[in-house]
Write a structure and sequence with these properties.
about 270 residues, alpha+beta, Heat Shock Protein 90, 5-stranded mixed β-sheet, kinase, protein dimerization activity, HATPase_dom, transferase, His_kinase_dom
Length: about 270
């Protein structure tokens, strides 16, 4: 009888152990499945955010293109017609020195306005970028922004393979924003734009000798930090990264890194 009781206890214990192991395995499997589902959900959310940002930037570029076309075809054409009409009027009136001086002054104002319209149009849609690529567009950006107060240099190495057009546009917009910030806010006198391709990675840096800024204070400002947040948002679309080596009272170094294989699928130009 004792043997039967021991046998029953052993069998019962074995059954309990098997059930316990089964429960542990089931709980572990369930937790692992839940973790995978949560990870997949987070990845879907992240991809959805990237898709939304990509769509936003596509919309911005389309609006820039529309505005540039309106300025060139509308305002630019009207200014040209106005200048022609002014020249005809001058020939009809003719003779008076005072009137001639006024005509010349008005013509100069029209010419200056036309130059500004062309400059704004080029800033809205960098045609050099579309025609000749990123390096040519950055050289043009540096040349246009260089004057008696600011010197901008471009240092680069030719990439082995051309960057995707969408990445060209993204890096150009980031460089444009950083150069404008260095001139307008940091009051820099010397700016260097660096562009390199290293280990299948695009690296863009903008280095200046300006007065710097407090990164936390700027980014907390909803209006003042918009440009920097836009840079981070643009890079998040392609899993890029930006490092701000900045502080008040000294020059700034801002470094952008984008893995080229991450930049391939994103299209900001369509």
């Amino acid at each position: 009888m004792s043997i039967d009781s021991g046998f029953v206890i052993a069998v019962g214990t074995a059954v309990l152990l098997i059930m316990a192991v089964f429960i542990i395995i089931f709980v572990a499997y369930y937790q692992q499945k839940q973790a995978k589902q949560q990870l997949a959900y987070k990845e879907m959310q992240a991809q959805h955010r990237r898709d939304l940002m990509a769509a936003t930037f596509r919309g911005q570029e389309e609006e820039r293109k529309r505005l540039a076309e309106d300025m060139h075809d509308g305002i630019g054409t009207m200014l040209s017609v106005t200048k022609m009409s002014l020249n005809q009027l001058e020939r009809q009136v003719g003779g008076d020195v005072q009137l001639s001086f006024q005509f010349q002054k008005t013509r100069s104002m029209i010419d200056e306005t036309m130059t500004n319209v062309r400059r704004i149009s080029r800033n809205l849609v960098p045609t050099t970028l579309e025609r000749f690529g990123l390096l040519a567009a950055l050289e043009e950006l540096a040349d246009r922004a260089t004057d008696t107060d600011v010197d901008i240099q471009l240092a680069y190495t030719e990439p082995e393979m051309p960057f995707p057009p969408a990445l060209d546009l993204m890096l150009y917009r980031i460089a444009q924003e950083l150069v404008n910030n260095a001139i307008r806010h940091a009051r820099a006198r010397h700016i260097t734009i660096q562009l390199f391709s290293v280990n299948n990675e695009a690296r863009l840096s903008v280095i200046d000798d300006g007065i710097g800024f407090d990164f936390d204070a700027v980014t907390e400002n909803k209006q003042g930090g918009l440009g920097l947040r836009n840079i981070e948002s643009r890079l998040s679309v392609v899993n890029g990264h930006v490092t701000f080596d900045v502080a008040p009272g000294r020059g700034s170094q801002i470094h952008v890194q984008v893995r080229l294989h991450d930049a391939q699928p994103v299209d900001l130009l369509s």
